[in-house]
Amino acid sequence: MKQFKFKHLLVVLFHTFILRLVTPIIVLLGLPFAKKAKRKTTHYGQDPDVQRYVLPKWLGIFNTPDEDLAGGMYEPTVKKIYEKFGAYICSVYWIGLRNQAQGFLWLFGWECSKELRDTNKESGYKLLNKEYNLGLFTVIVGWEICKDNYLDYTTSGYYAIPQIDIKFK
Fold it and tell me: Are 91 and 67 in contact (CB under 8 A)?
């Protein structure tokens, strides 16, 4: 397993405190440049008839690499937004609010095995390996194991990305 280093903490902090501020605006402006996806999304038990979209490469850090837009049809809230408002508003929610700048975090990830993911199922597929007690809250940094559904990043289909959790006492 790859060790979580200081550079990974900087990446996650940049993502958390800078990218999350600008992502909703960039997504609103960038979504009109999205193209119809050539591949069908059928993982997560989704409806393969939902038209999918991908952002252009120059907006790649704002994409969700494990799922094309409008993503998250397996989540009841996302499905309701899609059915009521359509793909554009659903995509704004999916990558502008729910999964902000996930593509950025994927740039700093590493391939892992299905076995490693399966052994961390109870933790929500998270490998948390550093805790910082900061008085009123604890900052936990580590890795979240994601499925690389399109095998764009891996051959195994499993990819660990840096992540941060903050727990208030």
Answer: no
pTM for this entry: 0.82
Give me the amino acid identity at 40.
K
108-163: per-residue pLDDT in tens?
999 999 888 888 887 778 887 788 888 898 888 889 898 888 888 999 999 999 98
Q: Which residue pairs from 164-169 have beta carbons closer than 8 angstroms and sit at least 24 positions apart in sequence?
A: 164/9, 164/12, 164/13, 164/16, 164/139, 164/140, 165/126, 165/128, 165/139, 165/140, 165/141, 166/137, 166/138, 166/139, 166/140, 167/137, 167/138, 167/140, 168/136, 168/137, 169/136, 169/137, 169/138
Q: Which residues pair with 52 in a beta bridge?
A: none
